[in-house]
Design goal:
Number of helices: 3
Helix content: 25-40%
CATH architecture: Alpha-Beta Complex
Strand order of the largest sheet: 1-2-3-4-6-5
Number of strands: 6
Radius of gyration: 13 Å
CATH topology: Aspartate Aminotransferase, domain 1
Strand content: 25-35%
Largest sheet: 6 strands, antiparallel
Number of domains: 1
CATH class: Alpha Beta
Structural class: alpha+beta
Distance between the termini: 37 Å
Length: about 110
């Protein structure tokens, strides 16, 4: 099992009790939707976390992550966390908790017709 698969399975297990979780492939990630909103995801080398602009600014200032840039635009509610950094004192549950805390106030994206 590679590193990304390990984190995907860990997130899957953590969220397994929730009835409102759906897995999708988005942004080159295995993404976990909570309440129809992108919450957290894993790609080959990074965790995609939707934690909100204010928390993202705090984490970025502390050097714990990098901004998400999509199509040349910085996505202010999202950050990438290097999977290798998750073995230190910033463990996966910390990031999952931040994502779940922001999820109720996150805006759902518009449904494509």
């Amino acid at each position: 099992m590679d590193k990304a698969d390990y984190f995907i399975n860990s997130i899957r297990e953590t969220l397994s009790e929730r009835p409102d979780v759906e897995e999708k492939n988005m942004f080159q990630c295995v993404s976990f939707m909570v309440d129809d909103k992108l919450c957290i995801g894993v790609r080959k080398d990074a965790l995609l976390c939707r934690i909100g602009r204010q928390q993202a600014e705090t984490e970025l200032a502390q050097g714990h992550c990098t901004p998400m840039i999509h199509n040349g635009r910085t996505m202010k509610d999202f950050v990438f966390v290097d999977l290798d950094s998750l073995t230190g004192n910033r463990q996966l549950p910390y990031w999952i908790d931040l994502c779940l805390k922001f999820n109720p106030i996150a805006k759902a994206s518009k449904k494509k017709k």
